[in-house]
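Zinc-binding dehydrogenase (Pyruvatibacter mobilis), 339 aa
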Amino acid sequence: MGSTTSRRWVLAERPAGIPDGNTFKLEEAPLPALEDGQVRVRVTHFSLDPGMRPALSRDTYVGATPIGSLITSAGVGVVEESRSDRLKEGDFVSGGFGWQSALVARDKHCVKHDPRLFNGNVTPTAAIGILGIPGMTSWFGLKDIGQLAEGETVLISSASGPVGATAGQLARLMGAGRVVGIAGSKAKCDWLTAEAGFDACLNYREADDLEAAMREACDGGADIYFDNVGGEMLDAAINVLKPGGRIAVSGQLSEYNRAEPHGIRNTLPFITQRLTMRGFVVLDFVREFGTAAIQMVEWINDGKLIYREEIIDGIENAPDAYAGLFKGDSFGRRLIKVS
């Protein structure tokens, strides 16, 4: 029979600061009967994404999440029932499924994956990780936004996260001369240098002078700063960039929970060092995702590109696991295993 109801997290109230137990509400609702062109999907895993935090509090480029509405995220699952010509029972699919255990969706909103892709080093959850939005953000942030050239030095904040760790490895594979990460613990830095191929990593929690530590780790300066954090870390990195340096703005982890944004306070080097700073939404490159994914799968299977996942059992644990993203206790792509 399959799923007849769905357990789902909805927005209960708009958070001020890091979301807590009052922010979300767990509901159970019946699933509607299928119509032509629809499928019922049992969700196996969904992602916890810091980038959707602003929409919980205010209007954004994707709008504000309405009170009482499903929390958005990427998910993977299995088709349990189908009235679609394109998808059949048992197909493995991904999509913007949200924080829920099952759903009825139109087939055009589901991406079907060939199960033969997921073998060896490539797990099914890679579809919403290194081969999904995080991995594509790394790829296009370096290639198109950062315009990485061979031999350049790349500095990456939040380097142990799914975007940062992938960006560092891709930078090396795309010809960077030196790759430097910034992370929040010795364990994270050790993994980045020993396993992920970074040349150096600095623990910002132990740096008395962050700018000086960045400059030393970069052997004098960086050509590209891949920014996942914003705030004071961005201000320090601006001073470390070489003439003609580029900043690719992928995320602003330090800004999402501030009542008042820190903003960019260090602007003179944009003139004196001829710097360029550009933000981006990776969906602008969606037509090129397939080409990037093919190359990344090849590198994963060859052992040249690795990824780390942090899978937490139980849909009921989603709010606490999500809050942890903003407290520095995550390590890799954080996912909820629903069933």
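The CA atoms of residues 233 and 322 lie 22 Å apart. The domain at 133-283 is CATH 3.40.50.720 (Rossmann fold). ok done for today
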